[in-house]
């Protein structure tokens, strides 16, 4: 499968067992050399490119934060490493373009894999960049006995210690290697390609004649091809467009010429089904591929599932491959992608500010407004009390007749 070449080699281990080594080549590589003519690349399909572009756009819009575990709640770390990853992870690339390259590799060019080479600063062990590899030059050597993998890049072996390897859909037999959607969607892509060709043929108007000529079927001129050509030249020499129809007058009577439409051959319904399958495979709401109406709930679900899941995979891979401090980790914040309106943000901020869970300047920042000096102080309602002070309220302790008229006095009771 997928251009795998099995070669059994004897490896000397303590148990003297046999280790199976395989070379794993992605379909993107393999089909450059072997194809039966029916191969349809994911990258060449408009619907797939739209789906992947939307995913890449959303994932690359999320800021990537370096976080540190803390007993009172994890805090963001702002240092040179955090700046490198969140701003310019590779030479000449911003985080957005770097993320877009990563997502396109996973879905289109790397068959579920994307690889970046770790480059250190000259004369030190500090990270300088994570340089992207050309996935068309990548193949894998997999040791099934020890579950070890080596990357072959342009025929040269690269150690996994110097690489950051992102993957989706781990192969069930070789779990260190991801798998894409090329094999699953191949027949569907051929259907969509054929539908586009049929649509193009219909748009040319070749199926409808520009002129219909009725002639006497018993005419001697129609007995030979030369005679029919003479009739056509006599009446239709100036005709432009599709070939005309010449029919016998006493046999056929054409009153209306109405060519088949895409709906007549159920092409629209077939294309919609295929588009929905593509959308479901990539986790997109159908409206993102032009099917149905926009749904806020579907969009937010898409952010919570597919986009947040990809973000978590990327953050966990970076944490595993480049961080040495066990208290540090990378994290995305998908909440910035949710579809909020201004009223919802205002109501959320008000509830947080009233309970001193958010400052007023944080509220303004959430709404995209600049901070103000007169908004620095924390405010809250007077009758909000710490939990350990709830029993100190005067109305609970007084036994006089006026006890029921006292309100909660948070200021006096702490």
TrEMBL record:
Annotated region described as Disordered, given as residue ranges: 395-414
InterPro entries (UniProt xref): Phage/GTA_portal, Portal_HK97
Descriptive protein name: Phage portal protein
Species this protein is from: Lacticaseibacillus paracasei (Lactobacillus paracasei)
Pfam families: Phage_portal
């Amino acid at each position: 499968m997928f251009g795998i070449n099995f070669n059994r080699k004897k490896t000397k281990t303590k148990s003297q067992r046999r280790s199976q080594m395989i070379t794993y080549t992605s379909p993107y590589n393999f089909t450059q050399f072997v194809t039966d003519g029916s191969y349809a690349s994911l990258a060449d399909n408009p619907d797939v490119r739209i789906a992947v572009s939307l995913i890449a756009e959303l994932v690359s819009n999320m800021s990537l934060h370096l976080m540190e575990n803390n007993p009172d709640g994890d805090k963001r770390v702002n240092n040179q490493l955090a700046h490198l990853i969140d701003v310019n992870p590779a030479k000449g690339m911003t985080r957005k373009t770097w993320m877009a390259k990563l997502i396109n590799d996973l879905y289109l060019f790397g068959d579920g894999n994307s690889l970046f080479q770790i480059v250190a600063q000259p004369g030190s062990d500090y990270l300088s960049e994570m340089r992207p590899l050309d996935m068309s030059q990548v193949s894998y050597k997999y040791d099934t006995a020890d579950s070890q993998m080596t990357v072959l890049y342009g025929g040269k072996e690269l150690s996994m210690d110097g690489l950051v390897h992102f993957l989706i859909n781990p192969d069930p037999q070789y779990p260190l290697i991801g798998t894409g959607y090329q094999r699953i969607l191949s027949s569907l892509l051929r259907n969509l390609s054929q539908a586009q060709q049929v649509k193009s043929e219909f748009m040319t108007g070749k199926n409808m004649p520009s002129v219909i000529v009725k002639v006497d079927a018993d005419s001697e001129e129609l007995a030979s091809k030369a005679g029919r050509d003479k009739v056509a030249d006599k009446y239709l020499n100036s005709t432009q467009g599709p070939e005309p129809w010449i029919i016998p007058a006493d046999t056929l009577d054409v009153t209306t010429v109405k060519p088949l439409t895409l709906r007549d051959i159920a092409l629209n319904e077939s294309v919609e089904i295929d588009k929905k399958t593509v959308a479901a495979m990539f986790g997109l709401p159908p409206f993102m591929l032009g099917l149905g109406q926009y749904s806020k709930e579907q969009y937010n679900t898409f952010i919570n599932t597919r986009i947040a899941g990809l973000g978590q995979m990327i953050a966990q891979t970076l944490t595993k491959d480049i961080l040495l401090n066990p208290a540090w980790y990378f994290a995305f914040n998908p909440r910035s992608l949710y579809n909020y309106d201004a009223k919802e943000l205002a109501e959320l901020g008000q509830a947080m500010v009233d309970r001193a869970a958010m400052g007023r300047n944080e509220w303004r920042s959430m709404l995209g407004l600049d901070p103000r000096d007169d908004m620095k102080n924390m405010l809250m309602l007077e009758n909000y009390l710490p939990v350990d002070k709830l029993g100190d309220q005067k109305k609970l302790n007084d036994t006089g007749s006026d006890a029921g008229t006292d309100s909660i006095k948070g200021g006096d009771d702490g």
